[in-house]
Amino acid sequence: MPIIIERTITFDNISSFIQTAGTGLMRMGIYSDSGSFSPQNLIVDGGIERDLAGGLKQGSVGNFTLTPGLYWGCLIKNATATFFTVQQSNPGNLAFIGLSAPSSSSFTNGRSGSLAYTSLPTSPAMPATAPTTALTATVPAIYLRTA
Q1: Which domain of life is it from (predicted)?
Q2: Which residue of 13, 51, 98, 126 lies most exposed, with the fewest beta carbons within 10 A?
């Protein structure tokens, strides 16, 4: 999920909302932008969330500061839970996310990638470099709270 920061801001929380409870594990994080409208380097790792009952799930982070720029909220899961997602009612509203021009037929809200994440919790860290991603219409909503 793209996150545009317009001024330097310190945050103390990263979270997502589980709409339908499930089993499994998840992690949330923030990646820098590659300069080509895709995630690149891990900046914040929110830790493992094991309780996937419905409701708000908060990552385990201390204060972190983001300077102006484009960032990517990321949620990795090996879970059956469903999450609130970001969607749009008008295709092409977010043309800055890797598209050269708005489209009347293509919804683009972020990027998604495939990652073998079956080793949770024995290999709990999010990848230092984001996996290859592709444009997608539905992405999990990631929330940041100011400190």
Answers
A1: Bacteria
A2: 51
